[in-house]
């Protein structure tokens, strides 16, 4: 894509990444892709806000040169040092050796650690202002959204918030970068939720603090480092991030995220009967087989619903390993205060339920029910499964 005008003399100069399989080496984006959003202000002083990943450097430099010679760049504003934001910095400095880097104090130390950069760095703090001429940039300190050095940049003339990782999402920007021109805004919201659950949910408290701080700023455009630029309704993405941040520690709407795995089909067979009981109670249900579905997609569901139904057989002397792995992701991302129930098959000893009990204590989940059984579901066990599902759904709905 070519540079896109946001407001007079302010451009999006980002690039799409359709080749990376795993964002942060962990989260699948092969189908969805991702954008690295950078922004350029062509004023008396010329500035770039955020950069791009190293693999997209040539496209990024080409975008700058379409607006002015890259050698005339005055400022490089680093909101965040993570390499998907700064991978192009060394090449950019070769082409614009007089450009000054603007960043927070901790970011300056990280630039030295990551890239060996020590010179021509100007440290700024929250509320400091950089005068470019017509446009003035005010810096907003937002530590741990999502690294400790992170800040946002606020352009005061046009009221544009360059929000870094906050308010971002997965997905390449195909054809248009704006929310009001998106062909499938619902999909981008879903990918924003997945991005939040994967990248930001573990720092929900600092994110809420940042959102509260931003209440003092009139915002006409939210321009994040990944995903759509929100100009028609910038408050919508801020409100969604607030809702999702609160959902990590406060139970959200009644519903069930089912995460299960099965070795020989016995736990999976019981799931069919439990789902029959759940569905009869008119409660939303999302089902994930952890053997085939990456935790990236499951975390989004865990943020939406107050109930988590876990199905896992005993594997040797442990809980089924893919389930243990999934619970580790939920713990890492700080998803607490859920109501949960457990079911699973065992061969000679029902160890899985005891391990799950311990996991729930560590995550502050309320364990409401357990249904474990030896071997395959028998006739009586089948009815137990239906009743187990009915009972769990009723308990979730009664919380509201």
3D architecture notes:
This protein folds into two domains: 4-247, Metallo-beta-lactamase, Chain A, CATH 3.60.15.10; 253-393, Rossmann fold, CATH 3.40.50. The two termini are 47 Å apart. The chain has helices at residues 57-67, 83-86, 89-95, 105-115, 185-200, 204-214, 234-247, 266-279, 295-304, 321-332, 351-363, 379-397, and strands at 4-7, 10-12, 15-17, 22-23, 27-28, 34-36, 39-42, 46-49, 75-77, 100-103, 121-123, 129-131, 136-141, 151-155, 160-164, 221-224, 253-260, 285-289, 305-311, 314-315, 318-319, 339-346, 366-374. By secondary structure, the protein is an alpha/beta fold. Strands 1-2-7-8-9-10-11 form a seven-stranded mixed beta sheet. It contains twelve helices and 23 strands. It is elongated, with a radius of gyration of 24 Å.
Supply the CATH architecture of the largest domain: 4-Layer Sandwich
Q: Beta-strand level of the residues, as a percent range?
A: 15-25%
Secondary-structure-derived class: alpha/beta
Total DSSP E strands: 23
CATH uppermost class of the largest domain: Alpha Beta
Topology, element by element:
Layout (H helix, E strand, L loop, with lengths): L3 E4 L2 E3 L2 E3 L4 E2 L3 E2 L5 E3 L2 E4 L3 E4 L7 H11 L7 E3 L5 H4 L2 H7 L4 E4 L1 H11 L5 E3 L5 E3 L4 E6 L9 E5 L4 E5 L20 H16 L3 H11 L6 E4 L9 H14 L5 E8 L5 H14 L5 E5 L5 H10 E7 L2 E2 L2 E2 L1 H12 L6 E8 L4 H13 L2 E9 L4 H19 L3
């Amino acid at each position: 894509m070519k540079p896109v005008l946001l407001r007079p003399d302010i451009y999006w100069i980002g690039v799409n990444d359709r080749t990376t399989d795993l964002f942060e080496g962990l989260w699948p984006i092969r189908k969805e892709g991702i954008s690295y959003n950078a922004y350029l202000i062509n004023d008396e002083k010329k500035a770039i806000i955020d950069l791009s990943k190293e693999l997209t450097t040539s496209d990024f430099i080409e975008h700058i040169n379409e607006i002015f010679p890259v050698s005339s760049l005055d400022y490089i504003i680093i909101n965040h040092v993570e390499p998907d934001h700064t991978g192009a910095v060394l090449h950019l400095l070769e082409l614009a050796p007089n450009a000054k880097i603007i960043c927070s104090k901790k970011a300056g130390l990280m630039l030295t650690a990551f890239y060996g950069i020590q010179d021509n760095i100007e440290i700024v703090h929250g509320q400091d202002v950089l005068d470019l001429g017509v446009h003035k940039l005010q810096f907003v300190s937002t530590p741990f959204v999502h690294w400790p050095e992170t800040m946002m940049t606020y352009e005061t003339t046009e009221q544009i918030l360059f929000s870094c990782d906050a308010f971002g999402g997965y997905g390449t920007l195909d054809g248009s970068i704006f929310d009001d021109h998106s062909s499938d805004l619902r999909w981008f919201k879903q990918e924003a939720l997945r991005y939040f659950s994967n990248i930001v949910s573990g720092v929900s408290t600092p994110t809420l603090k940042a959102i509260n701080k931003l209440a003092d700023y009139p915002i006409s455009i939210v321009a994040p480092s990944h995903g759509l630029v929100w100009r028609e309704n910038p408050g919508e993405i801020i409100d969604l991030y607030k809702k999702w941040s609160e959902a990590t520690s406060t139970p959200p709407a009644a519903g069930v995220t089912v995460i299960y795995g099965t070795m020989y089909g016995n736990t999976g067979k019981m799931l069919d009967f439990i789902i029959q009981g759940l569905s009869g109670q008119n409660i939303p249900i999302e089902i994930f087989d952890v053997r085939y579905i990456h935790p990236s997609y499951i975390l989004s569901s865990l943020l939406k619903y107050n109930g988590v139904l876990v199905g896992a057989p005993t594997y040797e002397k442990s809980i089924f390993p893919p389930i243990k792995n999934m619970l580790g992701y939920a713990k890492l991302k700080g998803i607490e205060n859920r109501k949960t129930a457990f079911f699973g098959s065992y061969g000679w000893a029902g160890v899985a339920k005891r391990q799950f009990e311990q996991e729930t204590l560590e995550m502050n989940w309320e364990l409401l029910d357990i249904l474990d059984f030896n071997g395959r579901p028998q006739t009586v066990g089948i009815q137990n499964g239906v009743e187990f599902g009915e009972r769990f759904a009723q308990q979730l709905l009664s919380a509201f």
